[in-house]
Design brief:
Blueprint (H helix, E strand, L loop, with lengths): L5 H33 L1 E6 L6 E8 L4 E7 L2 H13 L8 E5 L4 E5 L3 E4 L6 H15 L1 E2 L9 H4 L1 H9 L11 H16 L5 E3 L8 E4 L3 E4 L5 E3 L6 H5 L8 H16 L3 H21 L6 H12 L3
Antiparallel strand pairs: 1-2, 2-3, 3-5, 4-5, 6-9, 7-8, 8-11, 9-10
Helix pairs in contact: 3-8, 5-9, 6-9, 9-10
Length: about 300
Amino acid sequence: MYVIPEPFTERMHELYGKQGEAWSEALPGLISDCAIRFDFSPEAPFPNSSYNLVLRAKLSDGKPAVLKLSIMKDELSREVSVLRAYEGRGAIHVLVADKDWGVALLEKADPGTPLSAIEDDAIATDIFCEVFRRLHLPAPTGSVYPSMKQHFAAIERYRERFDYADTAAPLPESWVENAEECLMYLLTTTSENLLLHGDLHHDNILRQGEEQWVVIDPKGIIGDVHFDTIQYLLNYMDRGGDCEQVLRSRIAIIAGRLGLDPRRIAMWGVVRGVLEACWTIEGGGTDWHRGLQLTERFAKCLD
């Protein structure tokens, strides 16, 4: 019987209460059923499993694979859908998946080194651009993916909770208004809505073989391609200089290599910072200043 790491079980209980605890307790049986049905041998979990349980696995032919199990079945199903849509464009291959079971068996990247291992920021950003260039495609007809407006809904919820005159509102009103104006402008001026990865950062880009890189863990959002640069820009922001310098350099490289508008990138960053602050407040956290720091940093790139 497969043993589920105790910290993961505790995490599921913390996040989802009794439902999470019951799901965790059922995981050993689910893993055994998957192993029989999909013909693989389960191995050790990846150490950073937090929202999903992710295990190493070995197929019957000896090839390595990854088993991903999620209590959030719809989210995993959307991830699988994006990976399949990106097939041949630089995404990890989906071997088999079952939405009802909330499981997906994926090809394992080999050697699987994340882009974060490349500490030269200019080289890493060049690789990001190569991955980015071949990834995106037009939004599928009858798409089930959330829109960009839906992705930023926490800003609307913040506004419903704290109106303009509410003295208890934690965020500076000027930044919220600025984010709302930027978001409206960006939504109304998006020329083409594409299927975006939605979480395209260093650790979701893995080396495959000697030269290739593949993406994992997409969220799936429909919208402006400029937005899909943001998660990369938010990670490892102090590499190779101070944060403002690194951000400006990255935006310049990305805009130049990919033919993107640097102002649109910076504007999405402004809105994304306020979104992060709103998420923090919704979750009961008090460290919303980090989100505003991101907003301020991107705003300077508009000067």
